[in-house]
Amino acid sequence: MKISREARRAAREMFRLSLVDGRLDNARVKDISDRLVAEKPRSFLEILKEYTRLVRLELASRHAVVESAVTLPDEQASRLLADLQSRFGNDITAEFRVQPGLLAGIRIKVGSDVWDGSVRNRLNTLSQQL
Prior knowledge:
Blueprint: H1 5-17, E1 19-20, E2 23-24, H2 26-39, H3 44-60, E3 63-68, H4 74-88, E4 93-98, E5 106-110, E6 113-116, H5 119-129
Parallel strand pairs: 3-4
Antiparallel strand pairs: 1-2, 3-5, 5-6
Helix pairs in contact: 1-3
């Protein structure tokens, strides 16, 4: 979807105002969204969609999805979460999923970043090289 430059700029400014100490503030997001819907400035739907996209991306960057072939022991899961928190900050949350299709290893997704250390990924890479 193509949006106007003005709408994109307005959405970015609203997003910047939603941050407190570099983190998204839920109260500010709600307040800004409510004011935007109430005032309905020109191109407000474009602004709202872009603002929603920016907020969604920021929320995704604060949540990790950890997939493994088998259930991780609690000790290993807590150590992995501590490593993620040291890298991305203490407010990151983690969701652990069992994905037997990985065969072995783990795959971690934080926002748009994916670290794939699974056997399935290595086999796929190997088959592409042959």
